[in-house]
Amino acid sequence: MKTNPLRIALPSILAIGLFFSTACSEKPRQLTEKEAAEIRSLSADANMALIFKVKDYERAQRNYEAIVKIDATNPAHWLSLGMNQHRLDKKDDARKSYKKARSLAESGYKTTKNPVYLLERSRAIALLGDVEGAMKAAEKARELHPDNREVSLALNPNNPAGLAAIFRSESFKQVSFLKN
Questions:
Q1: Under DSSP, is residue 22 helix (H, G, I), strand (E, B) or coil?
Q2: Distance CA 71, CA 23 (A)
Q3: pTM score
């Protein structure tokens, strides 16, 4: 029986996404404990709607919209919203969300110098259809932060949850503006 590599990598991808969603909200806006708890709850519900073959994209959409209302400064939230908009065939909205994520990642890095913002920027660039530009942007993160563990993991070509593997995956291609 052939195992789907995405099924194996999905827990790692989700863990990285969870890390990004918490790490990227460091400086631009401090969430209250209530807001953070609500985001965790909405994220969990949205993930359940998407992952466990329920594919309830409308429910996920409501959750992601609520999340960006609570914390509009986190690029990871905008990427999640955009990917779901793409699934719902709301391509113009998805493109706007990806651009918003890219902009927030750029300003977040300028403010905090947290390299995770550079990785989020890379994801946004790839989702907008420029994987080569995204990998160059991620390499810039390695140049600026050579000892950062998250950057090293994201750029490790043997990591099934690394950026190169993610950008090649069918699930990524389905929510990006890559030309096949």
A1: helix
A2: 13
A3: 0.76
